[in-house]
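The freezer alarm interrupted the setup, so I double-checked each line after restarting. Inputs confirmed:
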Amino acid sequence: MKRLPLIALALLLPLRAFAAADMSEDGMLRDHLWRQLMGKPKGKRPTVGLVLSAGSLRATTHVGVISVLENAGFPIDVVAGTSMGAIIGSLYASGKSGKELMELARTFQPSAGINLSAFSLARLILADKLLSSERTQKYIDKAVGGRRFEELPKPFACVAMDLYSGESIIFREGPLALAVRASMNLPGIFEPVEYRHRYLVDGGVADYIPIDAARLLGADWVMASIAETDYTHSKPTNVLESLEQVIDIRGSLLSREQRAQANFLIEPPVGDIGLAETDRLQEAVSKGVVTAHDRLPQAMQSLVLFSMGALMGDYLPGKAP
Amino acid sequence: MILPALVLASALGHAAFWASAADPVAEPSRLFDAGQFAGVVSSLSPEALQRLRGDGLRRAYFLLASSLQRLGRADQAIGVYQLGVKLYPADLNLLTGLAGVLHGAGLEDRARPLFEKVISIHPNNAVANLGLAEIDYSLGFLDRSARHYEKALETDDSKPEMWIAYGDVLHELRDDKTAELAYRRSLQLRPSPAATLGLAFALRGDGRAADGIAALRALLESDPDLERRAQGRSLLGLWLLEERREDEALAAVEPLLSEAPDDPLGRYIRARVRLRQDRYRDAVADLKVAAQGGRYAPFVAQVAQAMLERLKGGR
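Predicted 3D structure, all chains:
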């Protein structure tokens, strides 16, 4: 086989006008104000919260979003998540980098966290006995090094629903893995988690996009990464998918109000990825990267405009920048 | 995007290399190397192609598609490349050519698997690595993009544009020390405004703001392009503000404002200087003009408006 005559030699090509920097007036000012804002210590700028929605397998798209934010040096001071968003959020808050999360997503085996073997499902249907989600707890506990909420490098909260009261319960202290397990404890499949006199199931039923949890942690400006389903295109074929779809529909209705409470939304187009489509996990992650990268300049502008009060102080006479 | 131009340019001069006395595509090869692409297209008519077999036909497809591409007939080039790839699915020239023209047309979803196929055949293929680097960069996969640029540069480190593109990825990854090296390498190969500007950004990103400003000043002094000089003046003004060198910032944008008095960013920069000088009324006047520039610079206008509201509230 003849080798390609590679990029051969002495070529005079037209140069780009400038390097990749955005040289529009908006781009130059964004870069300038962003640098100023990032030069401020915590406490002198708004506290930034990242909220990771529920969304089962689709929600692995959050990994791509986190990776882009981290590469760009976007500050994330507090994290909140529900269901799969709680799993990813807990790992991130425990110190795992975007790169490590990408690697985890690449090698993720659903059986590592959830026992949904044919035998388990048969037992569920024939013996009318809910499954245990203890495996999720063990997986998380191992991944976060057995830490409690209070021991995390980044403040984190997750949400579950109490079956006794119908309330959404926000966890931000105590044993982390147990709370995350409760947050993604699919009702009707897994037995509720009993904790502090509560009977806890998946938080996606009550708080799909937990903006309130991030605010409780002190977030002034909140970015929400949302992995909603497009249930109009989904035809559930089994018990699990039907239940998931009901939660998603309920979550979508709830999220209409929650969206309005966020300062900025990132919504990767993952709505058509089904609960069982584990082979599309990388696609979900990639869509998170592409969407977040595309939205990044707008997100920076939104945070800069929100922070004008903090920035303005430097512009007046006698103030240091 | 530098790949399509590089691929096109790389083909030149190689057609004759393949040709021999008994070569059935000797004449199209000669025309191609002479830059007579319309002649290549005429000589490789459908009837002429029907008479060719084996290696001659394979090369004819490449010459024809590449010529169509150079003539700006990308749709037809894609069709010919596709026919060629169908007949010769492991031919690196055809695969790379098709991937390159698809990439040039922004059809990244179709270009990517072809570049990946080339790499599966020839892992160090610089063109395919460069194509994937550009696609990954545009989509936000910066780590992957950097790795592909590194692979491409391992094979060919003589292209200043490639070093700039690599520097840009590293700068976005906030690895400004390595980005600086990449821009400097590009400047060694051939000085250019793009490499100097990249270097200025890398120096500033690395905390050496004064050096970045000096590089930017040098660029402004040497670059004859008026539009770039106007952009550069605003940029210089902003960077000087960061260093609290307000007088110099004002001096940087005054020529810009004398040419375009309503320029939103120029007005914004002057307002910032005037605020520091406690010239409140003048600052407000500038901000009011900047806030009207929403059509041209919506973010500048929003920032100016936000500042006006805060100033109003504070007085």
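Quick read of the result. The longest helix of chain A spans residues 281-306.
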